Structures are given as structure tokens and as C-alpha cells.
Request: fold
Amino acid sequence: MKSKLSLMIAVVLTMTLVVSLSLIGCKAEKPKVVETAAPAETTAPAEEVAETTAPVEEEVPAWQQSEAYAVLQVVTEKWEAIFEKDGYYDPGFDANDFESVQAPSSAPEEVEAGQFITINWAQWAPADNLDALSKDFTAETGIRVIVEQVPWETFVSKYNTEMIAGSDAWDIIVADSQDVGNMAVNGHFVEITDFVVAQGVLDRFTPASMYYYSEYPKGAGRYWSIPVEGDALGWAYRMDLFEDPDNMTAFEAEYGYALGVPQSWDQILDIAEFFHDPDNDFYGVAIYGDNGYDSLAMFAMQTIRAYGGDLGNFETFNVDGYLNSEGAVKGLEYYRDLFQYTPPGFGDAFFIATNDAFVNGIVPMTTNYFAFFPGLATAATNPYADVTGYFTSPPQTTVAGDLKQTTALGGQGASIVKYSKKQDLALKWLEWFARDDTQAKWGMMPGSFTCHAATLESDEFLSAWPFNPNMKESFEIFEDWWAVPQYDEMLRIFSEDLGTYVIAGKQ
Amino acid sequence: MSNLSRNNNPGTFLYRRSLRDSTLLKIFILPVIILLIVMNIFPLFYSLFLSFSDYSAKMSFNWGRNPEMIGGENFSSILRDKVMWQRFITTAKFVLLTVSGQMLLGFGLALLLQAKFPGKGFITTLLILPMTMSPIIVGVMWKLFYNPNWGMFNYLLGLGKIDWTTNTQYNLYACAITDIWMWTPFVMLLSIAGLSAVPKYLYEAAEIDRASWWFKFSRITLPMVFPLLLIALIFRTMEAFKIFDVIMGIAGRGATAPQVLSLYLYNVGFVTWKTSYGSAIGYIMLIMIIAITSIFIKYLNKAKT
Reply:
């Protein structure tokens, strides 16, 4: 009995000791930093550097000695390793070398009435709009449309799981733009190139939207979807604060130029710094911090590109020289700097948190996808709706001295599922959806952004919502993430490594 | 010929036409066996096979390419990965924090509940409630408590605006506090069961001998409850090692979430679809859990004897 008692006491004491040590360690623990492979010159012991590499040290530019460079270098190496493993750098590699099932160039004229199709999309206002809009299709054809909405958190993984299982639960999936390569190469979607060409979709939809939402491989002329929701990151700001005479005077005195709609990313940082006043529960800016899926990656992508970096070359699959370039380093450092001015708890902030911060009046400006801006333009959901203005992601002078204006693309395209037993009905729906009159109506619905060129140009569209002109402008500058089948693994690496760097910078 | 078939009793005819006991037994067990094979045994061996291959469920099945047999490469890669070892340490830290907290608090509460006081039954019921909730709901609920801007946790403790959910310095402890809150009642219940089973005459005898409170506790209470405490320890260690939903609810699955093994397994297996690598991680976790629980079970058997 004694031995049991001793054992029990020993276990309890050990655990108590470990917990105490852990808690002590917690206080002393430094912020988690990404494991980085800093350049060889910077990782050598100090004495060694002093003795042997002093002249070399001068040759290494300062930006290559930064933590941001080390983070991006690691991601570059990991990404290139993925491409190398999958043979992308092999001589004769052809990204276009995969088979597909081709849909007919037009939908059947007559279909049996009383049938239905099921469309899968994420759970948000545009999906409600699609549900409402599809009632016109039902009235025309007698085919009922069920729009199934999946919460954003599980949207991509859920439809991927269904496709892996060869499920015919859905006839159409409105999938994320970056997933088009995965779905095409792995044979989950029906190719609709003949249909797109025959229906004149290429002439009627903006070229950029067809390139990003529908085409894979990029530039190969093979199409897999009809753009449904064109979207991009934009900005909302409080006009009353920006136009307040006291603020304007103080800002100009501090920064040497007039407070107004930011004309560059540098100015966004200045304005965020100016307004940041945590002691009075007011913060400089609301931007994304969530790194579970792609929100942080999308924001990082645009700051990296704005300063002259890039994710890589989408045609050669080279990453070295793009993602670990000086512009990319500057862009990533910028993100980390800007993140300092977010409200507490923004490490997992996505579209709800940024809009909430804005409508609660704790930030003067926020980023979000345009599809989420109707909530800010409506007095019922935003008490500052009448003093809310909008702006497009501004141009920025890159490290090379060029002027670059870019924004991150959001949105999705509708594709026919290869396992669907109602592909003809699904094609009929696509044909109806791509029609000019349907697109005109779709473009007028709150939060639904058509990629239909004529609708985008129309006065009716441009005046429908205060942010629509910015949305149209964003359509000319938006850029997307990798659309290769490996995008998810690349996204995970990018989000983990950069997420730790950006968020830990605030801790 | 059996005795039954030679029997001329009229009831025998019916009995012979009906099923034998052993056949009935097999029929009743068969669905469970089939279910076990389909749902447990097959996935167990299939994932073991996959762990020795390079396979992604996202890609089409193509024998020789997907999956491609690569021997123990996944295992060696996992064990050589420094980041993986950090995840082991984070998991171990979480297990130690939660299990020790639950054991101390659970047993302490059980001792307090031995006293007689008004509303004891009601308070016991209240204390058990957290355990009856869904872990993911608990996670999401505590995420709201932990909100640095308007959450109750900081407000009640006067902690200012500490970010408990995404600050990597604190969020492991936030998840541990939640897990302790949720599962302390489990230890408490087992301890109450153990304490109720201690024969009263032992205390009476100790009273006669004028034994001190500590003597009674250390020589009677603790040894008698020890086997049940060990069972609680085994269950809680296994569960804490596999923790997923509470962390997912509080801190999500991103880079700033506490990087425990199961979260990593989820990201590898179901986000990036590296199915075979995920299977190998799963097997390493399985081996570790078996090793730890075997040690506890050894002590449990000793305690019983």
C-alpha cells in the first residue's frame, strides 16, 4: 500500500512541478517565430563571421538579412520542392497533358419537366441571390434548382471530399478560383471549352475573369467554369473621420500631406498609425489575420505584389526570384507593420471580424471582399453607413521604382460535376446563367458581382451600390493565387509560415 | 445423432426446426463483427498500408504512382522533422497541464462533496454539466469568453485585453483551462464513486485509534480510491493526447493555434490531402498512446492486487 501511495504522490508532485515550470516558462516564453532558414551568411556564429566573412557581409543586401526574407526563402524552397517532386521542372513536362470529359457545345433544347439540379456554394448572401435568381430558370424550363450552402470554414474541404468520393450529390459546384486546376487535372469537373466558345462566353465576359475563374492550365485555352461571383479585396473608410478638420490638420502636421483617401499602400500605413489609439479603444485598421484557409494569404499576396514581388511564374512554375525577391520582402514586412494597428484578437479575423470592427466604430478603415460591403452600405447594419466611403487598393511604388496597382481576387466559377447524372440539365442552367439578360439581373443583386463585361460597364450597375465603381476598377487589376492542383499544400505552407511571422509580430 | 433428435417429445419438433443457441449467438454477433471489420479493422489496416506509401486521396487511384510504395520514408521523415518534435512537445505540455489540473481539481471537488450540506445534489449536477456538452460547442463558447474586446474572462479577472485565442504565448493555456473546466467533472465522478466504496468501518476504527485527518486520508482514502483515480488518469491522458475539437473551436486550425499533433494530422490529412503522411502521423500517435496507457495499466493491475 505504501508503494502505491508513494507512486501517487510522486505522480501528483511531478505533474504539479511540470505545470509550475510550464507556467513560469509561459511568462518568459518569447513569441513563436517561424523556423527559418536564414541565408548562410547570417547563420554563421558571430566569431566566424568576424574572422572569415567580413567582406562578404557587405555584399549581402540588408533585405536579405531580414526575418521576412528568411520566411519567404523557406516558403520558396518548399514550393519549388513540391513542383520538383511532381515533375514540373522535368524537360518535356506539359501541364496540359491530362484527359477530360468534354461537355457538348450547347444544352439540349427540350428537357423533361419536373426535374431538379443541385448547386453547391458557400454560405453567404450571393448564394441566397443565386437561389432567388434561379427561380427565373425554373419558370422558364420547369427544372427546379436547389442551392445548397456550406459554411465557409468547411466549404472547400467538403466539396473536395465529395469529389474524391465520386459523389453525385451536386450537379454544379461554384468552386474557389484556385481550385480549378485540382478539379480539372483530377477529373472532377467536366471541361466546357466547346460550350464556352460556342456560346460566345469569351467575348461577353471580361478576359481577366475567364483567365482566373475558368481557364486551366493558364493560357492553354481550356475552360472549366462560367464565372459566377467576381470579387476582389477593397476598402471602406469613415468619411467623417477622414474629413474632420482637426484630424486633417493634425495629420498634415505629422505626415506632411493631406489626410484623404489613401493614394498608396504607404499612406494606408500612415493613416492607420495616425488613428491608432488603443487607450481609447480605437484602432488604426481592420485587416485579415485568419490563417486557417486563404484570407491571410490573399492579403499578403497583394502587399507582396504591390511592392514588386510575386508568388512565382504561373507558366514556368519558378518561384525563386519572385517570392524571395526584395519586393516580396518589403510587401511582407509591410503586412506585419500594418497588422500592428489592428484591434486585439485579430489573429483570426476574417470577413465578419473586419466588418464588425467597422460597424462598431473602432476602426477608421477596413478591408474586405466587395461581396461583403452591402452590409456596410446599409443603415440597418452599419450606423455609419451614410458616412462610409470606399476605395480600391491603391497603386504603390515598388522597390524597383515602378508604379504597381493590384488587388487580391476573390470569387468563384460554376462547374459541372463529372459524377453528376444530370449533366445536360446542369449545362442548361449554365447556358441560362451566362445569358446577357440573366447577367444583367445578377449584377444588380446586392453582393453579386457579375463578370459580364457589358453589365459591368452599364450605368445601372455602376450606380447600384456606392462601391460598384471601385469593384469595376478592381476587375482591371486583380490577380489570383496559384491554380495548380498542389495549391492547397502551397497555401498551407504559405499561411503557416507567413501567418506566424505576421501575427507573432503583434505579440 | 444428438439426444434431442432422439427425443419423442412433441415440443422437440419445433425445437429442431428452430435455430441452435450457438447459431443464434453467431447471427446476433455477426452484424457487430461486420460493422467492426468495415468501420474499424479495415481502415486500421488500410491506413497502415497507406502509411508506407506516397498517396494523396485527392488524386486518382493509380497503382504504382498513387499510391507508390516508399517503405518507412514517411515515418523517418516525421521523426526527422524538427517542427514535428515541437508539436510533440506542445502536445505533451497540453496533456500534462490538463490531466494534472483535472486530477487535482476533480479529486479535490469529490472530497469536498463528501461533506453534507444543503443543495449538494443540485451543486453536483451543476458541476457535471460541462462534461455533458459537445466539445466543439464548448470551444466556441469559450472563444467568446476569451474575446479580448468584450469577453467575460478578461473582464472578470481584470486582465485588460489579453488575446487568449490567437496569441501563441497564451492560447495553449486558454485551451487547457477550457479542457480542465470540461473534464474535471469526469475525474470528480469517478472519485466520488471510489470514495463511496470506502468501507465506513475503516474510518470508525481509525477514529477509535484517534487517527489524524492526514493519517486517514493517506492510509485509507487515497489507497482505496487509487485504482479509480488511475482509470481516470488513463482515460484523460488518452483523450488529452487526441485533443482536437476544443482547440479547433477556440483557436482554429491556423498557424497561430496551439500546434498539437491531432491538429497537424487534420491539416496534413484533410486540408493538404497528404493521406499517407497523415496515416503515418496517426500511427505514431497510436503507438505513443498505447505506450503511455500500458504503463498506467501496469500500475492499475498492481493496484488491484
